[in-house]
Amino acid sequence: MEKVFITGHRNPDMDSVCSAYGYSVLKNRIDKKREYVPCRLGPVSKAVENVFENAGAVIPSLLSDVCLRVSDIMKRNYVRLDVSNPVYDVIKLYNKKHPSVIPIFDGDKFICLLSSDDINRYFLLENHAKGRPFYTVSENNIQRCIPGYYFKKGKKAEVKSQFVVGAMEYDVFKSRVEECDVKPVLIVGLRKRHIQYAIDSEMPGIVLTGINDIKSLSDFDFSSYKGFIYISELDTAETIKLLRLSSPVKRIIRRDKAITIKEDTLFDEALEILIKSEERGLAVLDENLNFTGYVTRRCFLSPEKKKVIMVDHNEAEQSVVGIEGADILEIIDHHRLDAPKMASPIFISSEPLGSTCTIVYEMYKKWGVRLDEKTAYILLAGVTSDTVMLKSPTTTDYDRFVVKKLLKIAKVPSYEDFGYMIFSSSSNLREEDPEKIILQDYKPYSENRFRFAISQVEVSSLLEIRSVEDIYIKALEAIRDKNGFDFVCLLATDVFAEKSVLLTTPFARSYRLSYKKESEGVYYLPGVLSRKKQLLPEIIKTLSD
Questions:
Q1: Are strands 228-232 and 205-208 parallel, antiparallel or unpaired?
Q2: What is the DSSP code string of 483-497?
Q3: Which secondary-structure segment (H or E) carries 55?
Q4: Helical (H) or strand (E) element with 333
Q5: 433 CB neighbour count, 10 Å cutoff
Q6: Is beta strand 516-519 parallel, antiparallel or unpaired with respect to 2-7?
Q7: Hey, what CATH topology would domain 81-251 get?
Q8: Residues of the chain with CATH 3.40.1390.20
Q9: Confidence of residue 495 (pLDDT cuts 50, 70, 90)
Q10: What is the C-alpha to C-alpha distance for residues 313 and 330, in angstroms, rounded to an integer?
């Protein structure tokens, strides 16, 4: 079944994770032809962990990228052959299935990929060899390739020998046999002197053609003969052709080591390896180095892009790695639009609401799908977090309406207690790694030639951030330098007191900020709770010409 990844933005917050989960539940109920997988693009906060644990739900899985890999294009269904199979089986398989390559095994051990080039090389060498070519003659393979039966089996199941056809007069035949490098296998009709010579000379095998009555062999004493005797039902010409093809596959495979790639090898990297190798295909191994399939040049011609639904964001810079090469099916968001260019129309639901989870609730109503208690609880957490318990200026009347509905469906008795549970799970700024805290809810922006990022963290008291502000400003500077930003900010918010502190690295136009400056890089923001609705517009204003 085709997978569609539903993912929020990098450095996922509550709304991002909860909306991805909630929308995946809806999509899986209304579309049975695809599997919708909720994902996150980074570690989640303790508050998110608590919400999903309380709801009895699994946190969306971590998605590292949507880049095409070998695992997305490889052929997993294949017909394999063993090194002991006759070359005849290879020819039959190519005539029937027309594969680019055939995986060859020795028991359970992968050996190589056999291509038509290898087969052509084998027959070209055979036909242009100096002297009489050698063949590996397998008793099992003879019976698999040539209609007939064994009159007598030999002492050896497999021999390496040359072929001689007893179609000439006895003296010429005898001289030809003596010219061979080793005792050859004889292919002959009912020529008694030729057959007796083969018996007396202990040739490794005799293939008889044109024998209609087994009684015609009663004149021969085969009791001491150690080779095999096979009665072919075909004429001599057909018998010789199939006897050559009875050689095991191991005779035609190359001995150099097979070129292999891993399932997680990137598409472009695998293509480059294949082109440089001049092979028709490459074997694919899993993390345990087991053969799982192969890729051929045809696999790279029209690869199926990974399919993505973006929730709680619409900018490529904030999205999953590889989004530029993915097939974006939908965007569900409540931020300003700066979406990637699309090759074809897609569904976009972009509304000026306080939370993406509010939009997801609206989608349930649109499709007439009843919300279950678990999903309602998770959507309620997303709305509560993003609207700061409906106190944020981004909050709309519809957000308030949705919260009332979700409280009832989720069977949450007290909204105040529910909100306290979410925001009391705030990170401990003194004990945890500053960079980890900053990157938990962190969004990059580009405005008027400036590249910057704003992070937000909820605290139980502003005294908590004031006691570690120097440490956090240094962490902001490190993130700025690492990512090439002009500046980076951290908005520390006390939800219950409805005020914030802004920490920022220096930037040329910071003097334009309308907030009270308490010290270098530290500003006091009473009544400011929203990054999107309050802080971001202020920063954009300071950056304008």
A1: parallel
A2: HT-SEEEEEEEETTT
A3: helix 46-55
A4: strand 327-333
A5: 10
A6: unpaired
A7: 3.40.1390
A8: 81-251
A9: confident
A10: 11
Q: Find the length of the chain.
A: 545
Q: Around 146, how many Cα atoms within 13 Å sit in the side-chain half-sphere?
A: 31
Predicted model pTM: 0.73
Sign of CA dihedral 263, 268, 270, 271: positive
Residue 419 has pLDDT above 70, yes or no: yes
CATH 3.10.310.20 in the chain: give the residue spans: 434-543
Q: Which of 293, 262, 255, 297 is nearest to 276 (CA)?
A: 297
What mean pLDDT is predicted for residues 309-333? 93
Tell me: pLDDT of 58 over 90: yes
Does residue 380 carry a pLDDT above 80?
A: yes
Which of 72, 9, 48 has the alpha carbon at shortest distance from 306? Answer: 72
Give the model's confidence band at 144: pLDDT under 50 very low, under 70 low, under 90 confident, else very high. Answer: very high
CATH topology of domain 2-67+305-423: inorganic pyrophosphatase (n-terminal core) (3.90.1640)
Please report the pLDDT score of residue 197 as a whole number: 92
Residue 542 CB neighbour total at 10 angstroms: 18
Query: What does the mean pLDDT of the chain come to?
Result: 91
Partners of residue 69 on adjacent β-strands: 266
The β-bridge relationship of strands 327-333 and 307-311 is: parallel
Inter-residue contact 33 to 1 (CB < 8 Å): yes
pLDDT at residue 367, as a whole number: 97
Q: Is the pLDDT of residue 62 over 90?
A: yes
For residue 467, give the DSSP letter: T
The class (CATH top level) of 434-543 is alpha beta
Q: Is the dihedral of CA 527, 434, 532, 385 positive or negative?
A: negative
On whether the CB atoms of residues 270 and 70 are closer than 8 A, the answer is yes
Which part of the chain is CATH 3.90.1640.10?
2-67+305-423
Euclidean distance between CA atoms 374 and 382, whole angstroms:
13
- E strands, 171-276, are 185-188, 205-208, 228-232, 260-262
Sheet-wide strand order for 281-285 = 260-262, 281-285, 291-296
